[in-house]
Write a structure and sequence with these properties.
Number of domains: 1
Shape: globular
Structural class: alpha/beta
Number of helices: 7
Strand order of the largest sheet: 1-2-3-4-5-6-7-8
Oligomer: single chain
CATH superfamily: Aldolase class I
Order of helices and strands: EHEHEHEHEHEEHEEEH
CATH architecture: Alpha-Beta Barrel
Low-confidence stretches: none
Length: 207
């Protein structure tokens, strides 16, 4: 299997269509209202209608009400919920669908507990820790903190770009990357040239 590429934080049709034509595996939309990349459910539905069926759609939630998550998943059949807050395993599993759990990495995190708690996840997304934001900061984290310590399939997020993706995708159980701010002109607006170059480089790199 080739390297899995997910483009997150999309806010408009043009960027979503462009990403879908670049041989990426998935695109993500942020339903957390405090995010700089927030987009509402109605807008996402309209964008999805213009995308190919084979691209996976991720919906990002942060500590949101179960009713809202259920409503969102019903409106977008087949979409994968990505839980980016402090959601418990019971919460994540309560929707009876594939889910992804984002984990913010810091030096003292108990990765063995993460392996155990979220073993039912489709995959993990490992991101940098920031007190003020749940992802999308463009900050990298020390990859040595996770090297050989994650038993579940995962994507690396947090400032991934052309200069550092290779160090991420060679890690055991890393199946790909999740990119956002590194390929933007400003929050929610993608730089098409940067994304094209990154995808080209990732696709030409054989792990």
């Amino acid at each position: 299997m080739g390297t899995y590429i997910k483009v997150c934080g999309l806010t408009n049709t043009e960027d979503a269509i462009m990403a879908s034509k670049l041989n990426v595996n998935a695109i993500g939309f942020n339903l957390f209202e405090k995010s700089k990349r927030y987009i509402n459910l109605n807008q996402i539905t309209k964008i999805k209608a213009k995308l190919p069926d084979d691209i996976e759609i991720f919906l990002l939630f942060v500590n949101q009400q179960r009713e809202f998550v259920s409503e969102s998943l019903k409106a977008l059949p087949g979409a994968i919920p990505q839980f980016h807050g402090e959601e418990t395993i019971e919460y994540c599993e309560s929707f009876n669908t594939d889910y992804v759990k984002a984990v913010r990495i810091y030096p003292t995190i108990d990765l063995e507990k993460i392996n155990q708690d979220y073993k039912s996840a489709k995959m993990l997304i490992l991101d940098s820790f920031n007190d003020d934001a749940y992802g999308g900061t463009g900050q990298t984290f020390n990859l040595s903190l996770i090297e050989g310590k994650i038993n579940l399939p995962f994507l690396v997020a947090g400032g991934i770009d052309e200069s550092n993706f290779k160090q991420a995708v060679v890690l055991d159980n890393c199946i790909g990357i999740d990119v956002c701010s590194s390929i933007e002109d400003k929050p929610g607006i993608k730089n098409h040239k940067k994304l094209k170059n990154l995808v080209k480089n990732v696709r030409s790199f054989n792990v």
